[in-house]
């Protein structure tokens, strides 16, 4: 087993442990997580597997295929996060606005 | 709306953020007109409360944290409507507008049945002292506003606007930052509001230059606008 394989598998193992400890979530989530991490380990151990899938899809190398997919997922996550932030901002704005208007009503010294 | 305007039913909304040095002067110029004044303090480091004590008629609202000018404006508009405002005027706190222009801004609202009036410093000669770079940026901003909203105005990002009660109810600003200026145009278009541009003076003092939008900032506003279109 080459150095990079050991390194990657160790990282994946750490992520797995982190998620298992942090998120005591539903069985479905755990199964999904296991599946994803299992696939990751599988691809690390057998990189030729990604090569074969890549060739099948018309991409030169397996690493390239993973790279392309990662970029798309990366953008998707950014957009989702941004939408979430905007929503949070609107909620916070609503709360602060309500507070401002309510306390102005109480402060009769202003009028 | 018909019939002459009762000035005490006109609410001037001033978004305020750390303009403590000039706010008293700005209010002093508005008060002789007998308009109602709402100052929305958008989480300033030093509250204008002490200054505004000298103006018992002025409403002061305070955001507990800084949200941005758009958010402050919207808070002020909502409060004005709650107080029964017939007309709502937005007015910058840094002293670049002339309070004497407000009357002209209101005129088309009842005389020509307009819903919104937008101030323009470029409708007549000699209304502004903006630098050439600033003028260029405003020209580009006009074009961008046109592409986004379909309204081709002579001025862009002018903080002085007047709206009828009906328009104020329809214009609900969601852009907390500076992109609200374009969002308002978008809302005008969307709600089919009748708008008119009115010539008004903009005087950049050393103070308002420092507080105003830098050229670099306009790129950020543009970015906000793109995101607004993407997510709303």
Describe this structure as you would to a colleague.
The complex is a heterodimer of chains A (111) and B (232). The N and C termini of chain A lie far apart (78 Å). Chain A is mostly helical and 111 residues long. Chain A has helices at 3-22, 27-45, 47-57, 62-106. Chain A has two domains: 1-45; 62-111. The mean pLDDT of chain A is 86. The relative contact order of chain A is 0.06. In chain A, 86% of the residues lie in helices and 0% in strands. Chain B has a single domain (7-231), classed as Alpha-Beta Complex (Spore Coat Polysaccharide Biosynthesis Protein SpsA, Chain A). In chain B, β2, α2 and β3 form a beta-alpha-beta unit. Chain B has helices at residues 23-30, 49-52, 69-82, 102-111, 132-149, 165-170, 180-190, 206-211, 215-231, and strands spanning 10-16, 36-41, 59-62, 87-90, 116-120, 161-164, 195-199. The radius of gyration of chain B is 16 Å and the shape is globular. In chain B, α5 (132-149) packs parallel to α9. Chain B is α/β, with parallel strands linked by helices. Chain B has nine helices and seven strands, in the order βαβαβαβαβαβααβαα. The model of chain B has no long low-confidence stretch (mean pLDDT 88). Chain A binds chain B through residues 82-83, 86, 89-90, 92-93, 96-97, 99-101, 103-104, 107, 109-111, and chain B through 40, 52, 56-65, 67, 71, 74-75, 78-79, 82, 174, 176, 227, 231.
């Amino acid at each position: 087993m080459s150095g990079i394989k050991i390194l990657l598998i160790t990282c994946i193992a750490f992520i797995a442990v982190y998620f298992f400890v942090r998120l005591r979530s539903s069985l479905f989530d755990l199964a999904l997580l296991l599946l994803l991490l299992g696939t990751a380990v599988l691809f690390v151990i057998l990189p030729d597997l990604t090569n074969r899938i890549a060739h099948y899809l018309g991409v030169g190398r397996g690493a390239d295929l993973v790279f392309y997919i990662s970029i798309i997922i990366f953008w998707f996550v950014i957009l989702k996060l941004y939408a979430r932030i905007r929503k949070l901002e609107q909620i916070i704005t609503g709360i602060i606005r309500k507070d401002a208007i309510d306390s102005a009503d109480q402060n009769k010294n202003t009028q | 709306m018909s019939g002459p305007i009762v000035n005490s039913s006109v609410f001037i909304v001033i978004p305020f953020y750390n303009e403590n040095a000039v706010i008293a002067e700005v209010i002093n110029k508005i008060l002789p007109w007998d308009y109602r004044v709402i100052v929305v303090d958008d989480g300033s480091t030093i509250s204008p409360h002490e200054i505004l004590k000298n103006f018992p008629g002025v409403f002061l609202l305070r955001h507990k944290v800084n949200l941005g000018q758009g958010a402050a404006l919207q808070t002020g508009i909502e409060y004005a409507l709650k107080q029964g405002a017939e007309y709502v005027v937005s007015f910058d706190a840094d002293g670049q507008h002339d309070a004497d222009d407000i009357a002209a801004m209101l005129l088309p609202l009842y005389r020509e049945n307009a819903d919104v009036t937008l101030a323009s410093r470029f409708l007549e000669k000699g209304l502004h002292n903006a630098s050439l770079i600033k003028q260029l940026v405003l020209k580009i901003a006009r074009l961008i506003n046109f592409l986004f909203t379909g309204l081709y105005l002579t001025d862009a990002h002018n903080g002085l606007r007047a709206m009828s009660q009906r328009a104020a109810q329809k214009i609900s600003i969601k852009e907390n930052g500076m992109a609200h200026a374009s969002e308002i145009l978008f809302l005008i278009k969307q709600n089919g509001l009748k708008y008119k541009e009115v010539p008004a003076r903009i005087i950049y003092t050393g103070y308002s230059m420092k507080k105003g939008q830098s050229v670099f900032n306009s790129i950020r506003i543009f970015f906000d606008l793109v995101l607004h279109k993407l997510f709303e």
